[in-house]
Amino acid sequence: MDHSTAPLLASVADYHAANRYGFTPPGHRQGRGIDDRVLRALGADAFHSDILMSPGLDDRLARQGLLAEAEDLMADAVGADAAFFSTCGSSLSVKAAMMAVAGHDGGLLVARDSHKSIVAGLIFSGVQPYWITPRWDAERHFSHPPSPAQVERAWREHPDAAGALIVSPSPYGTCADIRGIAEVCHARGKPLIVDEAWGAHLPFHEDLPTWAMDVGADVCVVSVHKMGMGFEQGSVFHLQGDLVDPVRLRSCADLLMTTSPNVLIYAALDGWRRQMVEFGHDLLDTALSTARRARAELGEIGGLTVMHDELLGVEASHDLDLLQVLVDISETGASGYEVADWLRTHRHLDLGLSDHRRILATLSPADDAGTIDALVDGLALWRAGLDRPRPPEIRLPTPDELQLETVMLPRDAFFAPSEPVPVEKAAGRIAAEQLTPYPPGIPAVVPGERLDEAVVEYLRTGVAAGLNLPDAADPHLDTVRVVRDR
To answer: What is the pLDDT of residues 252-269, one digit of tens each?
Structure first.
């Protein structure tokens, strides 16, 4: 296929060249009706290309086939049979995949370190999850993706499940042995879904971890806004093989998708695909070199450990994305929450992820010597000014304590009559809500699980130390919503 073309982008240019006007949404008419104060803050260009997809960019019957052509180009670029664009993020994409594979019966093997969007998919669909326990590093309080052996064991316990779903890369950049897991699933004629939201860049450089489509995954979901260069909410899910019905997959996506997709997001996905096919290898070469420099210089700051070897191995992760620079700062006595807050306040630098002992700097091809200097200098300045650190008082559960008992379907618990109870009385009750430290967005508690004292104390002390629980009914966690006793 001709990857020098970008049909959606070209059509946006044609729309402007034709001076087309629509008596249709969006009502701002490419910025004509926007308040000047809004234009000063957001810029006129933000509205100029906000065009209705159809009738607008394409006609009322989509005769030009712009979206279909762009999706075909994307699939060809990454070696998939088909690609589907989403303007609702990978949260929509992974829900559609789950429903297409397991929405009818059988349940789904699901890695317990999954993102909250996957739990939301369980709630929407009513699918029964059979949890695959992640590998756990108790010393560092860190989970790793499941191994093929763990997936094999889950299949033996639940042979009637409709398919399996794993997350790789994790939000920390750690990766599963997708080839081995796909072989385990396919030996049973069952599909593998990979939530590869953090892996949009993986097809375009051999020094990055394995791209799921290259090693047999059936459905792969990527967030181009995370490790690619698209707008927020830009996602693509890819399909190959014959274990997942493409018609059902698209129909499930259509159930969840907005009927008013944002052309800006579509066009940015189209343009990013062209950029990566033409220049991606060189861009990622430079990005990896930049990451190696960042890792080396951050490792010279006292008390900071740039994690690498400790993340890899037989009992750890299969591979690692070097663009995810994970730094353990526990030797300093500070928490990652404190460091992130300090960098934002004093150096105007934002970090996407921090926890009780780590911070994560996610690098991309957009980073360069200047941005790395700012990061290194900022952390060095923080370290030099650290005075009498006081370790955060967070009660960290053991791996066994983290494995809560599932006693109800997530959907049933979420929609059941519920009530708030004081946090000190929540242990032993069945959760009716997700409780998700964010980022990274992996639920500590899923609706339908029986709460235990250790996890409740972890969340309560974590919130006091700076942990964010955005989906809790009570974000201060004075109360927890539980299923009402019958």
So the answer is: 999 999 889 999 999 999
Q: Which residue has the tokens 């190696």?
A: 292
Contact status, residue 458 vs residue 444, Cβ threshold 8 Å: yes
Q: Pairing state of beta strands 479-483 and 358-362?
A: unpaired
pTM, entire model: 0.94
Q: Give the Cα separation of 480 and 426 in Å (integer).
A: 7
- Name residues whose C-beta falls within 8 Å of residue 310's C-beta, 6 or more positions apart in sequence: 137, 140, 316
- What confidence score (pLDDT) does residue 390 get? 66
Amino acid, single-letter form, for residue 16: H
Residue 402 has a pLDDT of 84
Q: Which two three-digit tokens encode residue 251?
A: 């129909």
Peptide bond into 439 cis (omega under 30): yes
10 Å CB burial of residue 188 (0-12, 13-18, 19+) is middle
Find out whether 205 and 177 touch, Cβ atoms under 8 Å. no
Dist CA 298 CA 363 (whole Å): 14
Residues linked to residue 131 through DSSP beta bridges, in sequence order: 110
pLDDT for position 269: 97
**Looking at residues 429-451, what average pLDDT do you find?**
91
Buried b (16+ CB within 10 A) or exposed e, 405-443: ebebbbbbbbebebeebebeebbebbbbbbbbbebbbbb
**Bridge partners for 430 per DSSP:** 450
Residue 343 and residue 334 in contact, taking contact as beta carbons nearer than 8 Å: no
Query: In this predicted model, what pLDDT tens digit does every residue of 40-55 receive, in sequence order?
Result: 999 999 899 999 999 9
Among the listed residues 35, 319, 99, the one whose alpha carbon sits nearest the alpha carbon of residue 199: 319
Closest CA to 11 of 61, 62, 45, 46: 62
Which amino acid, residue 314?
Answer: V
CA angle 239, 151, 184 (to 5 degrees): 60
What DSSP line would sit under 276-332, residue for residue? HHHHHHHHHHHHHHHHHHHHHHHTTSTT-EE-SGGGBSTTSBSEE-TTEEEEE-GGG
Helix (H, G, I), strand (E, B) or coil at 449: strand
pLDDT attached to residue 41: 95
The pLDDT of residue 398: 83
Q: Are 203 and 240 in contact (CB under 8 A)?
A: no
User: Can you read off the two tokens belonging to residue 450?
Assistant: 């029986």
In angstroms, the CA 299 to CA 454 distance is 34
Residue pair 1/72 in contact by the 8 Å Cβ criterion: yes
Q: Is 228 exposed, middle or buried (0-12, 13-18, 19+ CB in 10 A)?
A: buried
- Please tell me whether the peptide bond between 129 and the residue prior to it is cis, using omega within 30 degrees of 0: no
How far apart, in whole angstroms, are the C-alpha atoms of residue 269 and residue 246?
21
